[in-house]
Write a sequence for this structure.
């Protein structure tokens, strides 16, 4: 059940330019799944809306969650000043999360671009757990492709704990020069399915790739949100077929999403 | 202590309701709020057929408020009656349905369909949405157009009708008086104020629709003034809304003359805002020895 609660900051540190890594103690961690998000409420009363932030990792003891976010406005600027021990208001767990069942027995490629990379940590962790517990023939082979601007490859080592990681950098300083798509070609990756999080142009290209390769691809979408719980209809995405809830060609990213099979959505 | 209020013959257990469009069909907030504790649940606008709404971005944050241009996306009255209404009835909520349309015939269609459902207590007629091109606000900015739609809807409605007024007019009293004269059973105000935001980094409009409705604490003083003006001009009940975020805000609207209040954008800031406001009003009455909420209504001192 979704709820708002007071949580507590356990730790916070910058891990890259304008990117912060914060652990939060919260009971919501018990229900958290890869691909879901929480909403963090700024204290500044002039900025009203909670900020949707993907979970990067859930602690093994399920008592805390990790978020890695970029400072992109007044709200996230406020969050970046939070100190360990501070109480914060959060709402969760929100969104559908990644469908993990479909990965069984597959060669799975995780693709993250920029600030889309953090949710892949928890996704890798959960896929690795499923794979280790699965019957023979159901194990999952994970590879990861990460796209960065430059050699500041945040979270790379976290992801290397779970899978072989390939890197693309826009400035060519590490790995394949160019985008994640260039890396997939350069390293000749041939997955059975894709999970991807990143900017819309990247997801647009992944849709083309998934259609060309004729493989499933699950993408996590972003949109400006207000309520976070499906009430305001602010954060919709165009869908190919009429949505079962809205009865029009729109789905709510905060509720029916943020993860969609790429063929369902018009991106 | 009495917190009950009466709107057009319908008794609400307390004066706090939700503002249309900010609470979905009620179901979306049922994890957070006991719907039967609210004065009423006012639904998202319901049209005769499904509406797709506007392109994204549909929402943008501004100082002390937000802009929206959802465009009244909704699954249509059939789905509302089959799916959403039974949920609200099961939750024991007092139901007010917000009705929208492009033409008078559209409104009548919805109103007639809801006439067969006595579990709908009241109808709120949305003639003030700034984000749809045809219908909506075109009926709410001209006293003659407002008069004719009010008369037509009233003639076909089985439930009492609340006309929801737009603040985007020169004199909102004139609109309130026109609706009253045409047969409205109650008025609700204010809908959002038309606004605009431009992103200086991308040099684009923040909303795909370019303009949107401004809501939230930023508009509250305007809403209080308009509620005061209209409540003192008409004899029918006025439901006040516009930036109500705390119980103090709600009391302020009651003192200005509102018989009931609606909480909108505050639901996004605090999903339990409605229940918190009810508790706050109750405590305020206790602290001030007020035994009947009606003693607060319109009781601003000169």
């Amino acid at each position: 059940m979704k709820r708002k609660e007071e949580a507590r900051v356990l730790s916070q540190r910058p891990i890259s330019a304008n990117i912060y890594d914060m652990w939060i103690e919260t009971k919501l961690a018990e229900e958290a799944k890869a691909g879901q998000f929480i909403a963090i409420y700024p204290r500044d009363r002039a900025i009203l809306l909670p900020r949707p932030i993907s979970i990067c990792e859930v602690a093994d003891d399920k008592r805390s969650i990790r978020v890695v976010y970029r400072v992109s406005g007044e709200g996230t600027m406020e969050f970046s000043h939070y100190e360990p021990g501070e109480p914060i208001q959060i709402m969760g767990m929100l969104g559908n999360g990644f469908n993990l069942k479909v990965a069984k027995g597959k060669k799975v490629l995780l693709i993250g671009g920029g600030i889309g990379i953090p949710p892949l940590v928890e996704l890798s962790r959960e896929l690795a757990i499923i794979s280790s517990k699965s019957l023979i023939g159901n194990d999952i082979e994970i590879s990861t492709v990460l796209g960065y601007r430059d050699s500041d490859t945040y979270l790379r080592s976290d992801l290397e704990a779970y899978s072989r990681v390939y890197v693309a950098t826009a400035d060519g300083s590490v790995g394949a020069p160019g985008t994640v798509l260039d890396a997939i070609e350069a390293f000749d990756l041939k997955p059975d399915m894709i999970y991807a999080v990143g900017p819309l142009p990247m997801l647009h290209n992944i849709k083309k790739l998934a259609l060309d390769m004729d493989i499933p691809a699950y993408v996590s979408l972003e949109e400006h949100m207000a309520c976070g719980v499906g009430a305001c209809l602010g954060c919709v995405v165009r869908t190919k077929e009429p949505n079962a809830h809205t009865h029009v060609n729109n789905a709510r990213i905060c509720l029916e999403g943020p993860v969609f099979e790429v063929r369902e959505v018009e991106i | 202590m009495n917190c009950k209020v009466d709107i057009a013959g319908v008794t609400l257990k307390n004066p706090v309701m939700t503002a249309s469009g900010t609470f979905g069909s009620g179901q979306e907030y049922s994890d957070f709020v006991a719907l039967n504790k609210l004065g009423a649940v006012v639904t998202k606008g319901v049209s005769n057929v499904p509406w797709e709404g506007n392109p994204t971005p549909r929402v943008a944050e501004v100082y002390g408020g937000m802009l929206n241009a959802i465009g009244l996306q909704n699954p249509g009255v059939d789905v509302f009656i089959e799916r959403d209404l039974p949920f609200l009835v099961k939750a024991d909520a007092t139901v007010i349905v917000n009705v929208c349309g492009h033409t008078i015939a559209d409104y009548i269609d919805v109103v007639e369909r809801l006439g067969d459902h006595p579990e709908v207590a009241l109808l709120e007629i949305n003639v003030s949405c700034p984000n749809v091109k045809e219908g909506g606000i075109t009926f709410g900015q001209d006293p003659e157009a407002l008069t004719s739609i009010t008369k037509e809807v009233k003639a076909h409605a089985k439930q009492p009708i609340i006309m929801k007024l737009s603040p985007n007019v020169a004199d909102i009293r004139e609109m309130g008086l026109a609706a009253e004269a045409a047969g409205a059973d109650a008025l609700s105000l204010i809908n959002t104020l038309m606004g605009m935001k431009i992103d200086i980094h991308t040099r684009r409009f923040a909303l795909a629709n370019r303009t949107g409705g401004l809501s939230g604490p930023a508009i509250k003083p305007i809403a209080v003034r308009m509620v005061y003006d209209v409540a003192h001009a008409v004899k029918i009940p006025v439901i006040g809304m516009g930036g109500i975020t705390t119980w103090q805000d709600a009391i302020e609207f009651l003192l200005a003359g509102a018989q009931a209040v609606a909480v909108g954008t505050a639901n996004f800031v605090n999903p339990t805002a409605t229940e918190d406001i009810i508790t706050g009003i109750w405590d305020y009455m206790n602290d001030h020895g007020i035994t009947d909420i009606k003693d607060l209504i319109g009781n601003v001192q000169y």
About this structure: The longest strand of chain A covers residues 3-16.
